[in-house]
C-alpha cells in the first residue's frame, strides 16, 4: 500500500470518526430536545392543574361570598319590613275626631310633607293638592268643602269631628290598617 492509499485510508477513517461524532451529537441533541419537551410538557401540565385548582377555589369563594351577600340582603329586607311595620304602626290613628299632632304627622307622612305634627302651609298645600283644592297653603271654607267632598261626608265647609273622623279613617286605610 502506497502513501496515497494510506493517506486516503487515514482520511476516510477521520471522516468516518467525524461522521460518527456528528451522528452522536445529533442523537444527543435529539435526546436533549425530547427531554426538554418532556420537562416543558410536565411543567405545563402542572401549571394547568394548579390553574384549575385556583379557579375552582376562586369559584368556591365567590359562591360562598354570594351566599353571604344573599343572607345579608335577606336580613336587610326583613329589617326594612320591620321598620316599615313599626312606622306604620306608630302612624296608626285612633278614629276619634281629634285632629291633633299624631293625626297631622300621619297625614304628613302620607303626603310626603315634613313630619313635624304642625298643620302649617306646606302640609295644607300638600293636602289641598291631594283633594283638588286651590293649593294656597291657607285652610279655609273652600279647603274644608273640598276635603269633605273628597272623603264623602256632609259638605258644609266646617271641618269638625265628623270630617276629622273620616280623614283619620282615610289615613289609616292608606297606611294599610
Number of helices: 5
- Shape designation: rod-shaped
Overall average residue pLDDT:
90
Say how many strands there are: 0
Rounded radius of gyration (Å) = 47 Å
Biggest β-sheet, characterized?
none
Specify the helix fraction band.
over 70%
Class from helix and strand fractions: mainly alpha
Give the distance, in angstroms, between the N- and C-terminal Cα atoms. 130 Å
Poorly predicted sequence stretches spanning 5 or more consecutive residues: none
Order of helices and strands: HHHHH
Give a short summary of the structure.
With 177 residues, the protein is mainly alpha-helical.
Can you walk through the features of this model?
It is a single chain. The protein is mostly helical and 177 residues long. Helix content is 77%, strand content 0%. It has helices spanning 3-91, 101-111, 121-131, 141-151, 161-174. It is rod-shaped and about 150 Å long.
Main attributes of the structure:
single chain, about 180 residues, mainly alpha
